[in-house]
Amino acid sequence: MADTQTAKAGQAEPEQPEKQPKSVRVVLLALMIAMMLAMLDNMIVGTAMPTIVGDLGGLEHLSWVVTGYTLATAASTPVWGKIGDMYGRKGAFLGSIVIFLIGSALSGMAQGMGELIAFRAVQGLGAGGLMVGVMAIIGDLIPPRERGKYQGMMAGVMALAMIGGPLVGGTITDNWGWRWTFYINLPLGAVALALVSAVLHLPKKRSKAGIDYLGVVLLTVGITAIVLVTTWGGTEYAWTSARIMELTALGVVSLVGFVFWQTKAAEPVLPLHIFKSLNFTLMSVIGFVTGFVMFGATLFLPLYQQAVQGASATNSGLLLLPMLGAMLVTSMVAGRVTTGSGRYKVFPVTGGVLMIIGLYLMSTMDTDTTRLTSGIYMAVVGAGMGCLMQVTMLVAQNSVEMKDMGVASSSATLFRTLGSSFGVAVMGALFNNRVQDVMTERAGALGKGITEKSAQLDAASLAKLPAAAREAYQHAVSAGTHSAFLLGSAIAIVVLVAAVFVKEVPLRGGPAKPSTEPTDAIPAPAIEAV
Questions:
Q1: Which residues form the Major facilitator superfamily (MFS) profile domain (predicted)?
Q2: How many CA atoms lie within 13 A of 91 on its CB side?
Q3: CATH 1.20.1250.20 is held by the domain 268-504
Q4: Residue 101 reports pLDDT greater than 90
Q5: Which member of 11, 189, 330, 380 has the greatest number of CB atoms within 10 A?
Q6: Which of 215, 204, 171 is nearest to 86 (CA)?
Q7: Is residue 357 pLDDT above 90, yes or no?
Q8: Helix 16-56 and helix 185-199: axis angle, to 10°?
């Protein structure tokens, strides 16, 4: 941030670079802890779910433990971004951490499945502000040109959460009990609260306009309906059932009404003028497709390796290491190159190409594919994701004014979340249908009966199958992943097309020039040196 501040006083230049990085690192540590809380939660809890059901009962409501959290997170994400823009980012972020910790504590104390679902929703409300708060505060503290230096840190946290989540969840559940999968958030959250409160000092804001309550309701109803359609469609209800049709209609009507109201509201939740920026709109599309592909890949890859390649389910997180490792390395390279040169268009283009190729290669995997070969294919996809994950947020934030940093961050996060929801639903439906068809072809009525309730068998169920049925299931899973990844490869073409149209607008906060441009100047928030 020193680049934009020191132009007015030459004598401040030698001192600022020494103080700023130290304080930024402390704030970033707190932000990364909060980011990890949001990302780890579902993965840790997912591992503990069988134990939770055994203790609390309520198997028929099991899916709502995850769905309630996801719904609350998705619906609250844009609201947290707007609150930060209107009333100050620090207060909104601290509030989201507190709500998340309250939800965590209550979830750990739940005495029944109904209570757990309700408390998970509270936790999700807080989680909606964690990721948005992290991204928006980083957008305030660090100019886009310098932000690439820290991309590796963020990508590392994401990779660590995805790999370590199941391992940590299993370890905690086995040794301390499932309640500690929630209680573990409390000390980590307390550290984040203390660091943010003590070190982060952002300008206080006070908007005279009230919160757009009608916009909040319409957006919440629309997002909730969409997430429920993608969650229930093809599983709880048939895609053509009356319930899915009703939810689809409700979602469409609500979102159309929301868009209309945003043109009338005094302080809209999601100001539509940010979409006038071509780059921002393109980054929203790229983020949606990246979420679609990434979460679909992380869902089906462990399933393929367990069912077809005989890998252990206990270490399922480690199965994604080639993809996540490649994602981490390329994200760090992209960040360094962007910081050094100010050029970034090459990364969305390269990321799109690598994702298309990698997903196509993964669609060719069959029952004879070795782990080395599948690991190489995963690394190609991971390299593509690494080129996209942080650059999309970087360009999106660089495309709006500082006053809209919160809604820009929340919109980018929301589109990625919705993309992941659609990806899991669409790729999952395609996978399930293909598995059912192949099982029927290869094992007749027996095969259809085996996968009638679910096309995804756990290790215990798979081990109990007769040899012929197990072989048929392996071919079926191979065929299902072929269809899912081939669809992903086709969808990834959208990323490449969108990336081609990105305009390489100079990143704010670059090297100082003799003649400064007032429109690019960003007022730097005060950060206490440590």
A1: 27-507
A2: 11
A3: yes
A4: yes
A5: 330
A6: 204
A7: yes
A8: 160
